[in-house]
Design a protein that fits this description.
The chain is mainly α. It is 65% helix and 6% strand. The protein is globular.
């Protein structure tokens, strides 16, 4: 795979989209609090999703693009991880909201950023320099 520009190895999406991520996170938190009246199990789902999103964004670009190739596997593994929240009704709703948002985000990420399958980078709407 031939790269146009080789960034430092520790560069991730966080370095490119720091301001955008901060604004989206703030808007999501505000939206969640407004929709739920300041609390509730849906807000818990948003909080779980945001925690996973921040971990996902810190992954180096190549790893991220390789993971986006397997979006269904990510959805299944997130479901298995979130199964610990299924003890109560509020935990059930929170885990369901987090899983739905994670599924939407991985699908959107695959379409917007593309993915790496084998040694070939399949471009999305935005072409990342890897």
């Amino acid at each position: 795979m031939k790269a146009i520009h080789t960034p430092p190895r520790d560069q991730s999406l966080l370095s490119d989209f720091r301001a955008v991520i901060q604004r989206v996170a703030l808007a999501t938190i505000c939206l969640a609090l407004a929709a739920c009246g300041g609390g509730g199990s849906t807000t818990t789902g948003f909080a779980i999703f945001l925690a996973m999103l921040f971990l996902f964004v810190k992954i180096p670009r190549r790893w991220l693009l390789r993971l986006l190739c397997y979006d269904m596997a990510i959805d299944v593994s997130v479901t298995l991880v979130l199964i610990i929240h299924f003890g109560t009704f509020s935990g059930l709703v929170g885990a369901t909201v987090a899983e739905m948002m994670t599924s939407i985000t991985t699908s959107a990420g695959k379409r917007l950023l593309g993915y790496i399958k084998g040694s070939e980078y399949h471009y999305g709407t935005f072409r990342l320099h890897i």
